[in-house]
Amino acid sequence: MRYVSTRGRSPELGFADVLLAGLAPDGGLYVPTEWPRLPLHLPTSSYEELAVAVMEPFIGDDIPSQVFERLVGEAYSTFRHDAVTPLRQLSADDWLLDLAQGPTLAFKDVALQLVGRLFDYVLGVRNERVMIVGATSGDTGSAAIDGVRACSNVDIVILYPHGRTSDVQRRQMTTVDAPNAHAVAIEGTFDDCQDLVKAMFNDAPFRDRMRLSAVNSINWARVMAQTVYYVYATQQLGWRPTSFSVPTGNFGNVLAGWIAREMGAPIHSLVVGSNENDILTRFFETRAMVATDVVPTLSPSMDIQVSSNFERLLFEMNGRDGGLTEEQLLRFRSTGRLSVEDDQFEQWIAPVFHAARFDDAATLRIIREVADATGEIIDPHTAVGIGAARLHREQGVPMVTTSTAHAAKFPDAVERAIGVRPALPAHLADLLERPERTRVLPNDLRSVQQFVESVAR
Ligand SMILES: *Cc1c(COP(=O)(O)O)cnc(C)c1O
User: Fold this and answer.
1) Which of 39, 145, 180, 217 has a Cα at 20 to 30 A from 288?
2) Which of 98, 112, 139 to mutate to test the pocket of ligand 1 (most atoms within 8 A of CB)?
């Protein structure tokens, strides 16, 4: 399989190069030259076997089959449930796909447990190493650290805003006992952390000397790993037309559903749930994407200004014209506004996508209603998904909401909703007693660069 950039000005690459590159040199995102069809006979024995069958066409010859099978097996053995992403019934046509059974209790584990192992393997073959640097406001940092903790060819430094993450989120980063993993508290905001990461990448000599790399949500391999559970859920429901509701931030999760549909999974519609940061929901209502300031909500992993993975869908909507896609995105960056033609909207969006937004009060109400009606304790992100699912349910079509985090990851919001503090699962029960290893650094590029140099192996 070969990959092209959504901005049309980067050379075609194979899977392994796309994995390590993340962003294309022209600033675009990599997509396969064509969407493969799912094999006619998909394995039904386990999530792992299905995962190999769904992803193999994307890997091509870059990783030998037996190696890929082993990496997939190792990645998903870290999940608490044998089914990896178990599907639970809430009511007649209403289902919950639990994506939070991984080590850090959020759906990002599904991708990052595999991507860390893919990185390590590819780097090992090439006799190379990388230093992954990233900024996090919570979920991504812990999932990235956990995904690479056992990798001998990868070091990782994650910056988080000092005193501004939840206890659980911070401790999931600072209690990892691995020589290659480093969580750093920056005396500043999440934006300061992001700016420091950008500045490190923009310092070309430093970037090259340290072999800096990233595993952010635009990395193709993350999207690829997420297509599997859409196929899995549809298979579990008897391969009949099935809809999905997806609490959405960067558009990575729901895009994977769209790709599974392109590959031939009988996916009926995809419902995008947003919190008050509703740029996507407004786009689906008005056909125009207009950036506004981010407001903090109870579902912080969806507090985004722009949904970076939307670029991949836009590229398809533009008939895979990279020049046009780049032009639109540059204009969006300078004016904060992007609109699409009516015929594009009618062809690509209207038949598949729906959207809905929920504020914090509605989010709390949904958590309470679901607990009362079903006994399921859901987190605030999942609640947004459930709310969106309810609005767009159709008679006779199963509706699957993707549950993107364990309730214990957001205990304050859940306690506000139902009066009970959700307990951490057994493997994290002593999280609050484990020794923390962290470093506090000023919001200063030189200090952070010195730290990165000092921990590189
Ligand atoms: C990252 C995240 C999301 C948003 O997923 P996208 O792929 O960015 O749309 C939703 N919920 C939780 C809990 C997350 O961690």
Assistant:
1) 217
2) 139
Q: Is residue 303 in contact with ligand 1, taking CB distance under 6 Å?
A: no
Report pLDDT for 191: 84
Best of 278, 302, 358, 414 for a ligand 1 pocket test (most atoms within 8 Å of beta carbon): 302
198 is catalytic: no
Is 449 inside a domain boundary? no
pTM equals 0.96
* In a domain? residue 210: no
Q: CB pairs under 8 A, 24+ apart, for 107-110?
A: 107/226, 107/253, 107/402, 107/403, 107/404, 107/405, 108/139, 108/140, 108/143, 108/144, 109/78, 109/79, 109/143, 109/146, 109/147, 110/84, 110/85, 110/225, 110/226, 110/228, 110/229
pLDDT interval class at 139 (50, 70, 90): confident
CA 253 – ligand 1 centroid, Å: 7
pLDDT of residue 216: 85
The answer, yes or no, to whether any atom of ligand 1 lies below 6 A from the CB of 251, is yes
pLDDT in the model for residue 165: 84
Q: How far is the CA of 424 from the centre of ligand 1 (A)?
A: 20
pLDDT in tens, 225-280: 999 999 999 999 999 999 999 999 999 999 999 999 999 999 999 999 999 999 99
End-to-end CA distance of the chain: 33
- Give the active site residue among 7, 108, 357, 381: 108
Within-domain flag for 58: no
For residue 248, the ligand 1 atom closest to its alpha carbon is 9
Whether pLDDT at 138 is above 80:
no
Other beta carbons less than 10 A from residue 437's beta carbon:
14
Q: How many domains does the chain have?
A: 1
457 confidence band (pLDDT: 50, 70, 90): confident
Residue 395 inside a domain? The answer is yes
Domain containing 368 — which CATH number? 3.40.50.1100
